[in-house]
Request: fold
Amino acid sequence: MTTPDLLLKGGTVLDPETGSQEAADVLVRDGRIASMGADLAAKDVPVYDCSGKIVSPGWMDMHVHFREPGYEHKETIVTGCRAAASGGFTAVACMPNTSPPIHTRDVVEFIVERAAGTPVDVHPVACVSKDRKGETLAEMGDLIAGGAVAFSDDGSPVQHAGLMRRALEYSSSFGKPIINHMEDLTLNAEGHMHEGEVATRLGVPGIPSLAEEVMIARDVLLAEFTGGHVHVAHISTAQAVDLVRQAKKRGIRVTAEVCTHHVALTDEAVESTGFSTEVKMHPPLRTAADVEALKEGLRDGAIDAICTDHAPHAPFEKEVEFLAAPFGILGLETAWGLIGRELIAPGVLTVAEAVRKITVAPRRILGLPLPVVAEGEEANLTVFDATTRWTFESRHIRSKSRNTPFTGSEMVGRPWAIYHKKQFVPTDTTE
Reply:
């Protein structure tokens, strides 16, 4: 519902770039921040009580799957934006494994148009190759003109090194990153979970860490050679983190993201849940040692951003045998609760550092402007806390699908509301 005027009362304003926090009311007039300060008052303006809460620039998830066009039975752009708003996000970047894929300008413009009326900015990530076949480069310039912010064949790696080289060369001329699904398919013999002790005990074909690490090593060398920007999608192994860390030290243009589920669960979840398909994702859940390495990568900056890889699937698709089920879980609604539980509460990241990885980092990687909480600026805000303990239940799901292993799990920290595009959305009323 349109809410051009709003007074956010009694909160603490956080600047994620500097880490500064200041108690201040925020008065929004006609979608812009009119004033900030103590004890603000305004006649005939709705008031939202932010006591005990933090106000930051609107969050961004740089890796989601909204499925439209082609797979609307799983998710649509509208339902995906509803889930994003519920999770505290005012912006997302959606991946191109749709049908048709996001490989032509008309599909890019279709997605942008479909999202226009929602309170969430949807930035399409277009294909590296036509039809995501890994054979011929997509028309990058035309896709950017339509609104694409990056390029990826996500769901499939760019397996051909020569094509990846050309993609980095072309994309660098536009200042856009190539986001690669890091997996050498020749090292993945149709695996379904992490190749390791648990998979061996269960008799499940595995996906080795080496498949991810070999591809990252290749792409780091290609980025160094071309001067292009390669972004590592959903990093999941200890060696992968170190490869990125060392590449950064050498001045190579490489950035990386990690998913919330990869810092919250290990491959043991497959066994402990009795082969629940809700813990089947790609890349797979790895070992406890990998999880610790991911957390250290977040702490020391080897990993730039936190994302969800929000991947909805209809119940009938997931309610099958483990080996027959598709990869992927929901992530938008549980993102901040997991960040609070796994990263902030244990002291891996401060609140400001965590918010930086879902506001500043993704937008810098994608070359997007950063919202600023200051007088005269467009109001693009997330209201949240980092301490509330609550239980995530099925009633909190706003996605069209239901596939998450976190139903019934305790979360730490809650998003309470977003304000963007003159729309105020308390997260408990996003249905």
